[in-house]
Design brief:
Number of strands: 7
Strand content: over 45%
Distance between the termini: 28 Å
Protein name: Small CPxCG-related zinc finger protein
Oligomer: single chain
């Protein structure tokens, strides 16, 4: 598992998923570069795949420099 620095703090994939989701998740995959810029500050965006429940898989996106986050839910 890869840890990354987000807003000055080192985070695990699980912690990153919790930052995006707003609550605990069941499982998270490794953190990856999202190859996109933050729409709010232009910073680097990273992604993490996670399961918020046993029946759902979500990809979450988080800026490494500001509070912006999003997921791939419709």
């Amino acid at each position: 598992m890869s840890n990354r620095v987000v807003q000055g703090r080192m985070v695990t994939p699980e912690k990153l998923a919790e930052l995006v989701e707003g609550e605990s998740v069941l499982e998270a995959e490794s953190i990856a570069d999202a190859d996109r810029d933050c729409p709010e500050c232009g910073g680097d965006v990273i992604s993490v795949g996670y399961m918020p429940s046993v029946t759902e898989f979500v990809t979450g996106f988080k800026c490494q420099d500001c509070d912006w986050s999003a997921d791939d839910r419709e």
